[in-house]
Amino acid sequence: MTAETTEGLVCPRDHGALQAVEGELSCAAGHRFPLRRWAGGAFADFSDETTFDSNAALQRATYDDGQANRYSGQGQDDKARFMRDFVSRRVRGRVKAKEQLLLSAFRDLRLPPAPRLLEIGCNDGRYLFVASALSGGSGIGLDISAAAVQQALEARPRGDRNAFHVGQADRLPVGDGSVDCVLSFDVFEHLGQGGFEQAMREVARVLAPGGALLVYVVSQNDRFTLHETLRQISGGRVGVDDGEGHRWENFIHPDRFRAVAAEVGLSVARLRAYHGFWTLFAEYYLYNAPPAFAYRLLDLLDYPLWRFDHGNGFLAVARKESP
Q1: What is the reported pLDDT for 67?
Q2: Which CATH number do you get for residue 56?
Q3: The model scores a pTM over 0.85
Q4: Domains in the chain, number
């Protein structure tokens, strides 16, 4: 394991420095974390199953399941080619709907040159690869699933400088104030309310002064959305967002996000609900077929909803204030 791969890592238990010795990382307190070689690279496993609650266990089981592998049957060259094309299209602005909202928000963050990035819940690394290409930075992708981290290493574009490790959102193996931007898309709603609070404390700890958190979260404030309408019409038989381990009680209300952010010392600079009625209809029931300009029109039709934070999800940007 190279120094570049371990750069920025600390023990997630006591935040002490780590040393690579005989196939593992260890800190002065004696905590040890196995290193595993994969696809020409290596990753550390910082997870501790003795600390898992039911939400963490469900997420690991969901994504470690072979059915979650996006590249089943593909060779490493095919995976890298797919990822290279995926990143290239997004760097060139070939996006629409929710992706357009996310990437536009990232471009507007005004990060420093070559920013230090961290993605919580990186899955196969695709959005960390995109963020690196857009910003000129690099960083660390963490996921609770070893299978997801392996996919990221297998699909990594040639020359990419990001590192990927198995880790938990509530115990980040990253040093205090060492990150300029934290990314996390469709992850916080899987943590449980207590896990969400602890993850936000960890984000505040690792962000450098002036650093930014960019998240997309499934929302509890889904009144008047397409899903809520379908639930009302069907008596709860359809319109239930329960795929991939979703549980409504774990979803985050926009006001709760604002409150928790303030508690941990982050200032919410932007919060924008999305997937109200028509945009959600186009993605779910028209299979994301409409062109980008059509989504812009549908988003205007959803304005009465997102203007008041109603949506199936929301994007938020929160910053750690400079001293």
Answers
A1: 47
A2: 3.40.50.150
A3: yes
A4: 1
